[in-house]
């Protein structure tokens, strides 16, 4: 691990310390590392049009909006290759929250998210993405004596 020295104005350091305390950090180093990771991740996401990764799309919608639930379901089916899981939560009589976990090409994930969030009746929404790298690996499964190998694609999350 590399040790660095950084000069920071007193008021900025006070604000950073308050930020760290409010979020339960026990030391400044981990806070700085998290900020650097976040900045690098956001830069990679904005610059890498052909990248892959994982994402979570959260959105709140009006369950009573005419045909909205059906349109949302159709959109998910149109992008079934991206969807890992969906969690549905009833907030109140008319309002639902869905959380969709996605994996694949980030451009396709963004397209899916934009289509969902643009639906009339979707009130709030946010897409959180994490870039990764796609690796094809060969694995041997089972206890057979024939050593059958199977290739799998795995998404490796980058730091």
UniProtKB/TrEMBL annotation:
Q: Name one GO molecular function term.
A: DNA binding
Record key words, sorted: DNA-binding, Metal-binding, Nickel, Transcription, Transcription regulation
Domain annotation Transcription factor NikR nickel binding C-terminal: ranges:
54-129
Q: How is the cofactor bound?
A: Binds 1 nickel ion per subunit.
Domain of life of the source: Bacteria
Q: Which cofactor does it need?
A: Ni(2+)
Binding annotation for Ni(2+) = 77, 88, 90, 96
An example GO biological process term is:
response to nickel cation
Where the record annotates domain Ribbon-helix-helix protein CopG, the positions are 3-40
Record-linked CDD domains:
RHH_NikR_HicB-like
Pfam families found in the cross-reference section: NikR_C, RHH_1
Q: Which PANTHER family match?
A: NICKEL-RESPONSIVE REGULATOR
Function, in words: Transcriptional regulator.
Q: Which family does it belong to?
A: Belongs to the transcriptional regulatory CopG/NikR family.
The protein's name in its UniProt record: Putative nickel-responsive regulator
Q: Which organism is it from?
A: Thalassospira profundimaris
């Amino acid at each position: 691990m590399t040790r660095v020295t950084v000069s920071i104005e007193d008021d900025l350091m006070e604000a950073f310390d308050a930020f760290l305390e409010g979020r339960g950090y026990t030391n400044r180093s981990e806070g700085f590392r998290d900020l650097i990771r976040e900045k690098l991740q956001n830069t990679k996401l904005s610059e890498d049009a052909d990248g892959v990764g994982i994402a979570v799309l959260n959105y709140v919608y009006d369950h009573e909006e005419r045909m909205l639930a059906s349109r949302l379901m159709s959109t998910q089916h149109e992008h079934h290759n991206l969807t890992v899981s969906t969690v549905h939560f009833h907030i109140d009589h008319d309002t639902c929250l869905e959380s969709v976990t996605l994996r694949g090409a980030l451009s396709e994930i963004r397209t899916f998210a934009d289509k969902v969030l643009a639906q009339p009746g979707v009130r709030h929404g946010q897409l959180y993405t994490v870039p990764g790298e796609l690796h094809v690996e060969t694995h041997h499964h089972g206890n057979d004596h024939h050593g059958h190998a199977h290739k799998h694609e795995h998404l490796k999350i980058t730091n």
